[in-house]
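Input chain follows. Return structure tokens only.
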Amino acid sequence: MNNKKGSVKFGTIITTILLIIILIITFNFYRQNYFNGFEKATTQQQITKFTRDTKVKYSDMNSYKIENVEYNDSTFYKEIDVEPFTTYKISCMVKTENVQCELENAEGGALIGLLDTTEYSAPIEGTNDWQPMEFMFNSKNREKVKISFRLGGNENNCTGTAWFSDFKLEKGTENTNTEWNVGCFIMKELDVNIDGTQYNFKTNLEDIENVRLNMERYKEDCYEFSEGKMTVNYEITEIDTPVTEISYSDEHGYYISHEDVKDLIYDKVQEKEYDHVFVVCRMEDDEGNLAIPIYENWIGLGSMDMYGIGYSLIRINKNSNSYTYKYGITNQAPEEVYLHEFLHTLERNSVERGDEIPALHDYEKYGYSEKTVQGLNQWYEDYMSKNILDSSTGSYIGLNDFVYSTQPPNSENFRYAVELEFNEEPANIFEEILTIFDSIKQKLK
């Protein structure tokens, strides 16, 4: 009789121990695989591991780990509600190990961004200990966005591991400032190899003097053409380190993208919090006998950005064509290329807000033509002061006033920021257990 009771008691103990072991295993599995409302996505399946890391973490919270075993573009993301035309900042701590990009001339790495857009932070490659990362954005006309923590890139794949932790979301204040803080970088040497041909060009004193003249005239145009609705404060920096990388597009040929000069200028762009960036570089020799291969003989490219900051490229060509950039009898608007490429940024900002405006290149449609001495200055003035007559409606069209305060978000927007709930984790083991049951209930519905 006693033996029978002892066997029952022993069996109960074994069963209890087994249940405890199963619960522990289940709980640990849950802790490693619970992403607290985040969704996961990859370009290629079965070569990326998403886990919650209980060992490698910045704080008490388990970190969010992405491991790309092979080259892949992977992310976990969360959709949130946002107020239209409002600034937000998402920040976290990030750690990387052996992050390597598949393509050299395309951006990728560990980053924060908005899923299904080209808006993202500067990516991190290689092996790095925990460091802060932040990404500021304007919601524009959106009411929902998907915050993405990513290992990869829009045009690149990566291998390696990235850990993300300690997320924080803040809402900034409205921007009413109409002064634009502009950085102009003169790249004094371009030294690249294209299809076996070495191209080496250096700016001369006349080039640099023309840049200084045209930046001052560009500043004056912005104020006068907008009828005082915007002002420009600018700074010119000469970069002695050669540019050794160059990008290519089927539309423009070879050009200098922000990726090509990021290591040379981005630290200062961040420090100064520039609202717009000009990069100026000689891409042709003095005689015009040797030049970087381009299409359509463009002298400027705009409507680009450097991590949310407007980015324009100005190409210096041969000295015999210096009238293109220098004020004189034959050219009283040498700053035109600077103004034109900057206006592409304002044009894009307007369109992204849902505003209907004339396209910057459609001047002939409204009866304007390029003048021998003044260029398209009358078009730019009417474009900025909303003084273009639309004969089909009898109304005046152009840029609306709000566009002059559409600078990218910066620290000033978050001086009085409001922290928003974004990724509240269970505070203790009991909350974690309750979260497990809530998760199971949701899946059973």
